[in-house]
Amino acid sequence: MARRSILGPVQRGAATALTALLLTSCGAIPHGSPGSGPPGPPGSSAPGSAGTPATTADGAVPVGPGPQPAYRVQTQPAPGSCHFRYADGHQPLPDASCTPGASNPKVTQSDLGTTICRAGYSSGIRPPTDITEREKTANAKSYGYTGSLHDAEYDHLVSLELGGDPNDARNLWVEPPSPDHKPGSGPDNDKDAVESTLHSAVCDHKATLAAAQHAIATNWTTAEAVLGLKQKK
After folding, report:
1. CB–CB of 177/152 below 8 Å?
2. Could you tell me if residue 36 is inside a domain?
3. pLDDT attached to residue 116
4. What does the pLDDT read at residue 57?
5. How many whole angstroms separate alpha carbon 163 and alpha carbon 209?
6. pLDDT value of position 232
7. Has residue 55 been placed in a domain?
8. Count of the separate structural domains present in the chain
9. Are the beta carbons of 116 and 180 closer than 8 angstroms?
10. Residue 156 covered by a domain
11. Where is the composition biased (Basic and acidic residues) (predicted)?
12. Are 90 and 84 spatial neighbours (Cβ–Cβ below 8 Å)?
């Protein structure tokens, strides 16, 4: 015969409550342990966790201020802070951190016929020499260039005929003479012919404006080949 419980209804209820309390206490998370405290807001991360990775550049040429009614002498990088690079054949290239190129916001793919593909457009937005000569002297110090300034060209990396910005310091550099240059004959660089080829390709719709700007800003010596205008060697 089973023994009958001696606890009454009230006592049994109290015992059940006490048991539940003890079980809850044993399973509680100690204060300050991982997982304690209220959850953070949606999307938040714990301290020390990796944050959102930086976005990568899409390769587009920076956009400059565009043509100005009156140009001012632009501040150049600090003396000695820029360094020439050289491509095959010892052709000079600018320092990408100092001279990445800059585009003219007034020139777009949809208005080529009224801007760079119209005769006289580039000459009409070119800064005056009293501005560019002072910039050229300062930029030569930026690059540590000690050669003849008469033979060096103060060059628009993205040329005006390709929609380059007229006077953004990021788009101008003292370009040393090409290796086959005759000393004392003044600026005459191989890059000029590349600019003309790319200009014709853009105006003939054989290359897009953005592609031509990116190609010449990256490496003018390979721009024609990159755009399929010249066989790669």
Report:
1. yes
2. no
3. 98
4. 47
5. 8
6. 54
7. no
8. 1
9. no
10. yes
11. 178-194
12. no
